Backbone:
């Protein structure tokens, strides 16, 4: 299992629209992808235009190949990309340790 | 409950030392702070010098005032800061939604 972190900056003042769009995009597209295990969306307190989308995938290739090279990736981008102020910064991580079930 | 994300870049080649140091710092210092609820440490796959430290605090002030203005903050910095390649980028977030217990 690996973690994808997408660090997202949206256009100012569009938070309410984006809150609905990202939930719709996850539930209608990403949640159906092979290897998708779960997600969280966090909203910035210090920077209100910043969102963190974290997704657990079974394998790195489930995201980088299976999802990104599928038609579903275009569907996802069509839903969320109109709100982006700049391209999201996306990287992948392994869990080192933690106690956090929250 | 709020999420702190510390986006950390360490000096190349010091991963094994830092893995031990950050665990020691969390367990010996941060875990005893008022309002600390849990943490995770993730290690970069795409960028091996990048670490994500996420901490759940009961309130924003538990981190920004209670912890950062305490003597414990200096103890924490003394353990981890020698490995930093640059100052970590730290911001705070609210959970919007998610299904992820991982």
Residues:
């Amino acid at each position: 299992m690996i973690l994808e972190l997408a660090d997202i900056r949206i256009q100012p003042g569009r938070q309410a629209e984006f809150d609905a769009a990202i939930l719709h995009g996850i539930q209608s597209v990403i949640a159906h992808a092979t290897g998708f295990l779960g997600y969280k969306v966090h909203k910035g307190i210090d920077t209100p235009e910043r969102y963190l989308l974290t997704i657990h995938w079974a394998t790195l290739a489930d995201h980088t190949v299976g999802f990104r090279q599928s038609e579903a990736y275009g569907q996802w981008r069509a839903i969320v990309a109109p709100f982006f102020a700049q391209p999201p910064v996306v990287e992948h991580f392994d869990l080192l340790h933690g106690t956090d079930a929250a």
Summary: Helices of chain A lie at 15-28, 60-67, 71-80. The longest strand of chain A covers residues 89-98. The longest helix of chain A spans residues 15-28.
